[in-house]
Amino acid sequence: MRNCRFLGIAAAASLFFLASCSHPARIEGVLTGAPASEVVVKLLDVNRYQILDTVATDAAGRYKYKVDVAQGQPEFIYLFYKDTKVASLLLQAGDKVQVTSDTLGTYSVTGSDETLKLMEVEKDEAEFSNRLLASSARLQDLEPSSGEAAALRKKMSQDYVDYYRGRVKYVLTNSHSLTSIPVLYQVVGENLQVFGQLTDAIHFKNICDSLKTVYPESKYVKALQKEAARRQQLLSLSSRLNSAEETAYPELDLTDVNGAKVKLSSVDAKVVMIYFWSSADAAQTLFNTDVMMPVYRDYHPKGLEIYSVSIDTDKASWASVVRNQKLPWINVCDGRGTSSPAVATYNVQALPVSYFIVDGRLTASPEVKDEASLRKFLASKL
Q: What is the pTM assigned to this prediction?
């Protein structure tokens, strides 16, 4: 009997422990104007939406949903009615929120202070973006050399400066809130990145350092850390370039597959993509054929050249991959791996990574993650 009692207590303790490890956030909502319909629940998985579930609404548009949120790892959750976002939520473990939305995307939330901050951030962003687009449309109708056009351009510039300063103030004031992350990534107007200056790397690093003290395991903070490192790398490179007297980019002089030295400065092209990679990584070799090759075929005739630097120690294996894949661009390698002077010169911290020389000068460029991002950048330069 004693053993039975002990087992019962142990089982109860186990259940209590499991319950304490589970920290669901609860959503109770009303979607007006859409009785007996559906609400799609999506999770922001760093840089893309992941559909979690589809929840049915009752005859009054009411619905309930529970999402697991790990302690210390808040989640960005978005609710959609068809293609319209009807709520943006930043939920912490144990949150209980009430959401009231309509089918046009107007909504209110109670029960989550972080969500209220997120709502205000999105509201400010939308209002500024709409003002910018309206001013841009008006500017197109004016004579470019007119005084009215000049005045409008000046006003647009000042509006941007004011908004940027406001966003800087926000992230500094809310440096321990995850709502600072979407602010750092804001893109307004037609395609204006608010924190797009090289020196904004400082803000990315400072906010990342602050958030790591509160949410060290958050996937959003870990992704921010990678972006902060990338921007610091570009800032460091820019600093070295500014101190150089005659060159617009750091020189490279490496050996190609035929044993000939090829200087980066000898490449004559409107856009030169400096691509650091490793032939020992299967994913990176696949990137050559699946992404680089079709892009190169389309943009090489328009003025693109690729200076591909392999960070490998086995030059024979690298050369074999290059020849087997029949890579048509410039392929170089010194066989020194991460000890290569090229790695230090361009402050390479992770592979693969790309830099772009446009019209003879190194330019700020996006992180190339896929074919779409590479094509988008090249289309704007060629």
A: 0.63
